[in-house]
């Protein structure tokens, strides 16, 4: 009798521990998700035709997930002076694109600009610098700009930055 109670309370304990671990790991995954898709990490599939056309004209349409909403707001308010070029859009087009960027934006905390860097560049966020710390200086020199994601991420055009599709140019 005593033995049976002991066994069942042990089993309850195991169950409790397992479900706690499960809950905790679920939470960690959800916290790191930041609008990334399903199980597939670093695939950003949210899209909007007008955004893809207008913001994918001169460079790939950068995933909205990789900058906080405040950065997108600032950028959409200064398109006439966009990184040394004029990327102006009509107000009604901006009114379509900005809510899409805001809705899918990354967190202020994770995608904050590195100290003294631009808050409108994905490539100058602390996240980007850390994520790319294994890329050597000589590799960076070989490509025209770190903002040229597709130089290494062969499927950047489709929003897929999974490490399986990275090919460092030599
Ligand atoms: C007329 C061409 C042009 C258009 C249109 C354009 N951009 Fe750009 N964009 C640039 C140039 C040039 C740069 C600087 C690229 C570099 O540093 O290599 C840039 C850089 C950026 C960067 C920073 C990249 C980095 O360093 O992390 C973001 C983000 C960006 N653009 C978003 C947008 C969005 C959003 C739109 C649509 C509203 C847009 N761009 C439309 C030319 C354009
Ligand atoms: C010089 C080549 C190169 C360029 C250019 C580059 N990346 Fe990367 N990227 C890498 C490498 C290498 C990693 C590290 C992969 C790993 O963790 O094994 C990486 C990792 C990533 C990851 C995480 C992928 C994963 O599965 O862990 C994302 C997201 C990403 N880059 C986005 C970008 C974006 C957006 C741009 C352009 C603004 C960009 N990268 C430009 C080489 C590059």
Describe the structure.
The chain has 170 residues and is mainly alpha-helical. The chain has a domain at 49-165. It has helices at 2-33, 49-54, 69-76, 91-104, 126-131, 137-142. The longest helix has 32 residues, at 2-33. It is globular and about 45 Å long. The structure holds heme C (2 copies). One heme C binds at residues 41-42, 66, 122-123, 131-132, 134-135, 139, 143, 146-149, 151-153, 161-163, 166, 168.
| Ions and ligands | heme C
Compressed to H and E, one letter per element, the order equals HHHHHH
Largest sheet: none
Kindly name the structural category.
mainly alpha
Radius of gyration, CA atoms, in whole angstroms: 22 Å
Mean pLDDT reading = 85
User: Would you count the extended β strands for me?
Assistant: 0
Portion in beta strands: under 5%
Specify the overall morphology.
globular
* Oligomerization status of the protein chains: single chain
Which ranges are low-confidence, i.e. pLDDT below 50, for 5 or more consecutive residues? 10-39
Q: How far do the termini sit from each other?
A: 72 Å
Q: Count every helix, treating DSSP H or I runs of 4 or more residues as helices.
A: 6
Q: Helical percent range?
A: 40-55%
């Amino acid at each position: 009798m005593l033995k049976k109670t002991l066994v069942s309370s042990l089993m309850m304990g195991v169950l409790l521990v397992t479900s706690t671990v499960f809950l905790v790991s679920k939470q960690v995954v959800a916290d790191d998700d930041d609008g990334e898709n399903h199980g597939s990490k670093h695939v950003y599939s949210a899209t909007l035709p007008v955004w893809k056309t207008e913001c994918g004209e001169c460079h790939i349409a950068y995933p909205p997930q990789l900058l906080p909403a405040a950065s997108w707001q600032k950028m959409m308010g200064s398109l006439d002076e966009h990184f040394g070029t004029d990327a102006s859009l009509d107000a009604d087009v901006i009114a379509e694109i900005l809510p899409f960027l805001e809705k899918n934006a990354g967190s202020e905390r994770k995608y904050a600009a590195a100290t003294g860097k631009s808050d409108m560049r994905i490539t100058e966020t602390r996240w980007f610098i850390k994520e790319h710390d294994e890329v050597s200086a000589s590799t960076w020199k070989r490509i025209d700009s770190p903002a040229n994601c597709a130089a290494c991420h062969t499927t950047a055009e489709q929003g897929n930055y999974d490490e399986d599709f990275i090919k460092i140019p030599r």
